[in-house]
Amino acid sequence: MYQKLTRTGLFLLLLFGLNTGAAADEAKDFVVALTRELETALMAAREQGLLENQQHLDDLIDQHILPYVDRETLCKKVFRPRWEEIVAQGKADDAYDAVFASLKRTYRLALAAYNGQQIEVGDSIDKGRYSIVRTRVHTRENGHNIDLALHRLEDGWRIFDVSVDGVVVTRTLNGSIQRVLQADDIDAVIDAINPPPAS
């Protein structure tokens, strides 16, 4: 009986060990497919002279980036420690919209600067509950490392955080609203993600 349990335990350990590696490989495969799809769309936009068209860039972001973002996990990290309160007040959709508007603004600038650079996808690192896949965008001068933190949900892989050259998006957004996070007005907390432009 003991040997049977030990063999079963070893089998499960091996199985989970294999699945851990497989999860990392699957995360990388997901990012490779996502990157190739985005590169194709960017090349077409560049050839058509549409990289300066804000609406076209927003459409690219809506089609090729945002559907693969886990908005709930991302927003939890951005609005911590106020996320439960935001949800309780029925303001989750407002928070999602605010964070996505901020992401769109950032991505729009990055996509508009696309000049046919190669996007290289590196190895995936499995962290247990999630994987990190490093991509590198090569530019004429140097390049930028973009680390994508992903986890698998029921409907597939989703990105829940991004780091650009070591700057983590959720930490940056959370840090930018630290003073407002203590405010009583939850709308002010959400609005702080997209402050009005300075005049």
Task: Please describe what this structure looks like.
By secondary structure, the protein is an alpha+beta fold. The protein has a single domain (2-191), classed as Roll (Nuclear Transport Factor 2, Chain: A), CATH 3.10.450. It contains 8 helices and 5 strands, in the order αααααβββββααα. Strands 1-2-3-4-5 form a 5-stranded antiparallel beta sheet. A hairpin with a 4-residue loop joins strand 1 and strand 2. Helix 3 crosses helix 5 and helix 3 (71-78) packs across helix 6 (169-176). The longest helix is centred in the first third of the chain and has 46 residues, at 2-47. The protein is globular. It starts with a helix and ends in an 8-residue tail after the last helix. The relative contact order is 0.14. Mean pLDDT is 83; it is low at 1-22. Residues 1-24 form the signal peptide. This is ABC transporter substrate-binding protein. Keywords: Signal.
